[in-house]
Amino acid sequence: MDIDSRQSAYRGRFAPSPTGPLHAGSLVAALGSWLDARVHRGAWLVRIEDVDGPRCVAGAAAEILRQLAACGLVPDEVPWVQSQRGDAYATALTRLAEAGAAFPCACTRSEIDAAWAARGVVHRPGAERVYPGTCRDGLGGRPARAWRLRAEGVVDWCDRRLGPQRQDVAAAVGDFVLARADGLWAYQLAVVVDDAAQGVTDVVRGADLADNTPRQILLQRALGLPTPRHLHLPLVLGDDGQKLSKGNGARAIDTDQPLRELQAAGRVLGLPDLAAANPAQWLAAAWPAWAGIIAGFNPRPMP
Ligand code: GLU
Hints:
Blueprint: E1 11-14, H1 24-39, E2 43-48, H2 60-70, E3 80-81, H3 86-98, E4 102-105, H4 109-118, E5 146-149, E6 154-159, E7 163-168, H5 169-172, E8 177-179, H6 187-197, E9 202-206, H7 213-223, E10 229-233, H8 258-268, H9 279-297
Bound molecules: glutamic acid (GLU).
Residues 15-17, 49, 191, 205, 209 line the site of glutamic acid (GLU).
């Protein structure tokens, strides 16, 4: 497809965290978001999500862009880099605080555990903790460490592949962190601010992120931002049956074999084997096939 025929308002994105090179799992998210943007005659953006600096690996962002390009996946606009977006996150947090939607929190992890223990609840080591609400009504003279969103309400949303979803965010997660005690911005805030600032209409990403969506919708509502459509893609599983990650056998994709890597990612997305001599030919055959697959997800047309 040539650039002139990309004329819809659709804007999609692939938002890798540069914690290592692209692997088979992240290529599925990249390819799925690219295919969906092409089918909808939209723009495909790449955003480097390096807010969690200590987890990022030097050179990984450039390597990811190189790997994507080797597979024929080239963003339509210059990639945004979240480590350069701190001012926008600070502005959003100020707005939330002024509206009373965010509050400072002084609790350490052990204080959160102690608050639960006082109510007879003991967490397994490493298990997620619902915030017990300690600092909702003030810090009680303790110094603020983090900022949290006041999480209220049940969120109903519809995933294009998974169908209707519902989460009681207060019960499932509690007041969640926007600015971390270590001084870093939380993923939830950064992703919501940037999706809106980039005019993203469609979030297409791995199904492991689906349970973040209700938190992001609450934040969008609190900030008066539009909620994009969502499509959560099938995951590649590692040797242990868990989502593929560096810890369970993920290796960097082989950019000497881009067709083989695209075929493998395409199979995860439900695409048939497609005859092609190079990535460009494969991608040209893949996006019409993707149109057929998404037509089966949801009989209702996209609004
Ligand atoms: N940066 C996130 C990750 O690599 C993805 C964020 C998103 O797509 O919303 O897991």
